[in-house]
TrEMBL record:
Protein name (record): Uridine kinase
Main location per the UniProt record: cytoplasm
Compartments reported by the entry: Cytoplasm
Family label: Belongs to the uridine kinase family.
Source organism, top-level taxon: Archaea
Organism name: Halopiger aswanensis
Listed GO biological process terms: CTP salvage; UMP salvage
Gene: udk
Catalysed reactions, semicolon-separated: cytidine + ATP = CMP + ADP + H(+); uridine + ATP = UMP + ADP + H(+)
């Protein structure tokens, strides 16, 4: 039996503030939220040695197991729990254990490619892109990878220049066209507050509307910009300084 889940996709470049937005939504809405980090759906690379895994381009869409993610989202929308994989950034691979994720009123998919896959896009009721200046994003990336993930600074910089930056320009940034809402300057509080208001309004107005573009009816991977404009929140424009 399906449940009235409202599905949100939050995309944006590395270090843009996606996780902050997702956590704020989850903390505000409360127990009715299930967070699905896209990072957990990196392909299982157990067949590769550690040194080989270090050389994989994790910023390319092919690094993710899309079929499993689609399957899990469909199961959640049908009211069924899923066994979500867990990713370990220090070993560049999945952990052995999985975590049981229960279906809830709101499902938040968060990751750089949340607005990339056409089948995933069709499951989303609200599509959000977090846009932050590249200089800010690289500083956040360095802090996160060195402090939180145990990486060395030289390796982080090499990875950014060789794969992160070019993959962002080629694959991530173009998905902005699929967004219903763009949050400029990262997770600024005004934008997040307005986003939460929109989520609550959509949940009230369209109970049970999941997939097929519940938020304004956009279902195409490349929505009409004129049609999307009516659904944009009045967020401040990003600084041009």
């Amino acid at each position: 039996m399906s449940i009235p889940s409202f599905v949100i996709g939050i995309a944006g470049g590395t270090g843009a503030g996606k996780t902050t937005v997702a956590r704020t939504v989850a903390d505000t809405v409360g127990e009715a939220v299930t967070r699905i980090p896209l990072d957990n759906y990196y392909e299982d690379l157990s067949h590769l040695e550690f040194e080989e895994r270090k050389e994989v381009n994790y910023d390319h869409p092919d690094a993710f197991e899309w079929e499993l993610l689609r399957e899990h989202l469909n199961q959640l929308l049908m009211g069924q729990p899923v066994e979500m994989p867990q990713y370990d950034f220090e070993i560049h691979n999945r952990k052995d254990e999985r975590v049981t994720v229960e279906p809830t009123d709101v499902i938040v998919l968060e990751g750089i490619f949340s607005l990339y896959d056409e089948e995933i896009i069709e499951m989303l009721d609200l599509r959000v892109y977090v846009m932050t200046d590249a200089d800010v994003r690289i500083l956040r990336r360095i802090e996160r990878d060195v402090v939180d993930r145990g990486r060395d600074l030289e390796g982080v910089m090499d990875q950014y220049l060789e794969t992160v930056k070019p993959m962002h320009e080629q694959f991530v940034e173009p998905t902005k066209k699929n967004a219903d809402v763009i949050i400029p300057e990262g997770a600024n509080q005004m934008a997040v507050d307005l986003l939460i208001e929109k989520i609550e309004a959509e949940r009230t107005d369209t109970p049970g509307a999941s997939g097929a573009g519940g938020a304004g009816g956009a279902t195409d991977a490349e929505p009409d910009p004129e049609a999307d404009r009516e659904r944009d929140l009045p967020f401040p424009e990003p600084s041009t300084d």
